[in-house]
Amino acid sequence: MDCFVKSNCVSYKQNKSLFVSQIVRKQNGKCLLFIQSWRDCMIELHELTPNDGEEVFKMVQEIGEKENGFINSLFSSSFSLFQEKLRRNYNLSKGINLEPNYVPQTVYWLFADGKPVGYGKLRHYLNESLLQHGGHIGYVISPNHRGNGYAKKLLEKLLKKSNEIGINQVLLTTDYDNSSSQKVIEHNNGKLEKIEKSSCFYWIDTFS
To answer: What is the rounded (10 degree) CA torsion for 193, 122, 69, 60?
Structure first.
């Protein structure tokens, strides 16, 4: 068991696949450590709706516009613009008013203990462009919640959603130098097909 000191408080880190958060609270001059496991932490996937509120908006803003190849298309300069994007993405998930070269895509928020910590995009099928970059699934975790195993759980749940809409094999692409994303994909049984133009191409069977 590794020990580290932060702000004069002692905490403990154990297996991240089991323990997803360490909470230190100061009470009567003493530091109390609370450890939550996956069995204690409520992990849920919520489909985007046009009525999603400011808590989700703040999480999206924390992510920034682009990182490690993930385009945060919901990043907005104002909450009103974010609401407009919610309506647009809701229609996109239903295949309404699809623009040229677009495919239906559903956005899912990942919630941990009732708080949004990240989100994923699930494309219902691929076109030529997505076969070259993007694939079926894109995902991201808010910087404030990384290092807790949430990306692995998010991808796991998105794969289940893929299977539910009839996608038996899912393509994911990631930057060659993004080892963290590669580990997340491989944890979820991703099989590397090729490395091309600085991108790794993985396939995952959703029925396994």
So the answer is: -150
Given the structure tokens 């393509």, which residue do they identify? 171
Q: Put the strands of the sheet holding 169-175 in their side by side order.
A: 169-175, 199-205, 191-196
Q: Do 43 and 112 meet the contact criterion of CB atoms below 8 Å apart?
A: yes
Tell me the pLDDT band of 2, cut-offs 50, 70 and 90: very low
Q: What is the pLDDT of residues 100-136, one digit of tens each?
A: 999 999 999 999 999 999 999 999 999 999 999 999 9
Count Cα neighbours of 59 within 13 Å in the Cβ-side half-sphere: 21
Q: How far apart are the first and last CA of the chain?
A: 34
Query: Domain 42-205 is classified in which CATH homologous superfamily?
Result: Gcn5-related N-acetyltransferase (GNAT) (3.40.630.30)
Q: What does the pLDDT read at residue 132?
A: 94
Write out the two tokens for 3. Answer: 């020990």
Where does CATH 3.40.630.30 sit in the chain? 42-205
Total Cβ atoms within 10 A of residue 25: 10
